[in-house]
Amino acid sequence: MVKILITEFINQESLDDLNNTFEINFDEKLWEKKxxxxxxxxxxxxxxxxxxxxxxxxxxxxxxxxxxxxxxxVGLDNIDxxxxxxxxxxVQPATGMNADSxxxxxISSSMSLIKKIPMFHHGTxxxxxxxxxxxSSEINKKCIGIVGFGTIGRKVADYSLKNGLNVLAYxxxxxxxxxNEKNYKLSSIEEIFEDADIISLHLPLTEETKNLINKSSxxxxxxxxxxxxxxxxxxxxxxxxxxxxxxxxxxxxxxxVFENEPITKDLxxxxxxxxxxxxxxxxxxxxxxxxxxxxxxxxxxxxxxxx
Length: 307
Fold this sequence. Notes:
This protein is an alpha/beta fold. It has helices spanning 12-19, 34-40, 57-60, 81-86, 99-114, 117-126, 151-162, 189-195, 215-219, 238-246, 265-268, 288-306, and strands at 3-6, 23-26, 46-49, 68-71, 90-93, 143-147, 166-170, 184-186, 198-201, 226-229, 252-255, 277-279. α10 (238-246) links the parallel β10 and β11. α1 (12-19) packs parallel to α12 and α5 (99-114) crosses α7. The protein is globular.
């Protein structure tokens, strides 16, 4: 019988479907036990992970029977996909299954930061009652620049239009928008830096995108924009981001992803409760609904693959 190993959390009904079809070993903390994972992976035909399990060459070299890796999410930077190709291992991400959750996060964060809600909250609970000392704005008619226009970027664009935003889109691999995307403007990243009130990042982590948003980038931003990162932490230089906020080059930021997760003491000590910012623990794509969609999708792909 096909044997599948699951190293992180998965929707229970989806797990039941797998159990009805394959022999399953489910340990949602196994990603922490690297040596144990390396030892037992040799016995399994399939592996299902989220973003914490490092499926690197060291692990894959021990995986003599492995034929399928299901990623409960989209990003593949924790999986050595090139080495998987050499071993003929199929890698399956859950493309599009958490796009609505991420888009909702981007829009709700944008509204919160433009309205300065984190600052109002801090002032109110401190007893200052900052009703007239902090100025807020409306999101309607603002401009959002979407950097990375794949499945999630397009979903963010759709939500943005419905909330009255003008949409600029940048993607180095897209030269022309589809006919049904005439309400978006395909732009350069420089145009986004100059014209956007909100900049939302939806890029994979590669050598080209690492520290893409840095000190130089912030000096080109003309409208003191809000920065929202739901892609990968290292796309943004975090220290440069905080410097840019302190220098009034940007007016706020929402970070759901970080270079180091959990975040390091050096980072959180630079962030104060007075700042117009939102920090969340890599949850923009994780909701009750998206977990069901992601889990069902990968389970179906695994069953189809092995049958």
